[in-house]
Amino acid sequence: MWKKRFFLRKGVNLFNFEADSNMKPMGEIRDVFDLRVWRAEKTTGDRPHMIRFVHSITKDEHLLSTNTQDEVKYWIKVLNDCYLVAQYENKVAKIILCQSIIRMRKDIKQYKKLKIAATKIQTILRKHNIRNTYLEKKKNVIKCQSVVRRWICLRRFKLVKRRILIVKELVATETSYVINLQIVDSMFTQPLMDLSSTNTPILSPEEIAAIFVPIQPILTVNSMLLEDLESRLSQWHVDKKIGRLMANHMNTMKGAYVTYILDYPEIISSLTSVIKKNNLFTQYISKIRQEDKYRTLDLPSIFIQPIQRLPRYELLLKDLIKHTPKTHPDYSELHTGLDMITEVTKDINEKRRVKDNSVAFNKLKGALTGKLAKTIKWAPYHIHLREGDVQVSNNKKVMYMFALNEFLLFTQKDKDKHKLLSIIFVKNITSMSSSVEGTVEKIVINVQGADTLTVSAPRSSPSWSSLLEKNLEEYKTRGITLSQ
């Protein structure tokens, strides 16, 4: 059904109103057409005065009827102006978009080229920076290496310097030591032996043999050691070795030193005795001291030097090892020499301990009196640990206690004799504790099948309690005596 409509174009929009009989608009807007997407076409056929109004996208259409051909042309022109402009603008926009895309692609290509160039520049700069950093670090490393090399050289120089000083000290002390032994041999042993066969002997051959003759073996072995040390020192260089030399000489020196050190108490006792009782010997010493080089002569200090010599060797070799690099050819041989000296020292100490124990043991057996003393079954493995005044429990009298590895002996001292009052066997001791009150050490001994015993003794070092507790612990641990 055809209806009258009033159309109003405003910009790109075409407003559709209902029209009255005079073709005036009335009512609200019915439709709004966007002329940019609507196009007008002239119809063909039997409708020459009509216009087809078609949507370019949805293909919706409307038919508009006019009175004349001129009106058809006018409306087609009016309606299509915006559409053509819109089409033009769309094409322009597409062209611009294409141009933008093309420019963007060109920019992307240019960006990629620039990025590649920038990456190359960054790589070159990075390599340059790495090289500069490397050169700087290399320079610092070279400085550090130089400092370390200098420190190592300085340390090696100090070690070499210290080594030669220790060897010189060894040779100097050995020289002084041998000279003192030679004084004893040349000024006492030989002259006194010659005088002993005359009518005016100063000492008997037995006294000379007991006091001075034991020095001779030590003088012999140490003279040989000194000769080798002086020869080694005269040809000294950085890699010169001394450890094997000391180890070899220790083998020959061992016998002489063991004999002398074990006999030293008797030797020094005899020497002290003749100095005090023999006026001729005292006058003989005074005569020797009249010479300037013997003015400070002191025989007891010379006779104790062999006792002190082995520990001195040990200290010097330890110091030498401390200042010898582990790569030095003498390092292992110094350890061999030190081990040899340590072994000789331990052997001497053990033999001295056995001898001292034997002396104390024999003295104890001869000093004990009373019926209880006859019941003791003495054995070779009994070891004398310690002895001294003690006070037992509530007994006000001071007793004398002998501590052995197998038993404790409580005696009443009477001059050189000791009356045995009681015995406590170590195997019967169940526990032991100790405390200190001022200058007194108290030891509580729990004995199986007997009353608890409290022993008080003056504080000393090492303490009574540590000695007794150690002996008890070893006895219980092994179930045997210390010497078995």
How would you describe this structure to a colleague?
This protein is α+β, with helices and mostly antiparallel strands. Strand 10 (407-414) and strand 11 (417-425) form a beta hairpin. The strands form three sheets. It has an eight-stranded mixed sheet. Helices cover 57% and strands 20% of the residues. Mean pLDDT is 84; it is low at 480-484. It is elongated, with a radius of gyration of 61 Å. It is built from nine helices and 14 strands.
Helix content: 55-70%
Can you tell me the overall shape? elongated
> DSSP helix count?
9
The radius of gyration computed from the alpha-carbon positions, rounded to a whole number of angstroms, is 61 Å
Structural class: alpha+beta
Strand order, main sheet: write it out: 7-11-10-9-8-14-13-12
The proportion of residues in beta strands is: 15-25%
List low-confidence stretches: 480-484
Average of the residue pLDDT scores: 84
SSE blueprint and pairings:
Blueprint: E1 5-10, E2 13-19, E3 25-34, E4 38-42, E5 50-55, E6 61-65, H1 69-196, H2 205-211, H3 215-234, H4 243-277, H5 279-289, H6 299-303, H7 305-322, H8 331-367, E7 368-369, E8 384-392, E9 399-404, E10 407-414, E11 417-425, E12 429-437, E13 440-447, E14 453-458, H9 464-478
Parallel strand pairs: 7-11
Antiparallel strand pairs: 1-2, 2-3, 4-5, 5-6, 8-9, 8-14, 9-10, 10-11, 12-13, 13-14
What characteristics describe this protein?
3-stranded antiparallel beta sheet; 8-stranded mixed beta sheet; disordered C terminus; 484 residues; 20% strand; alpha+beta; 9 helices
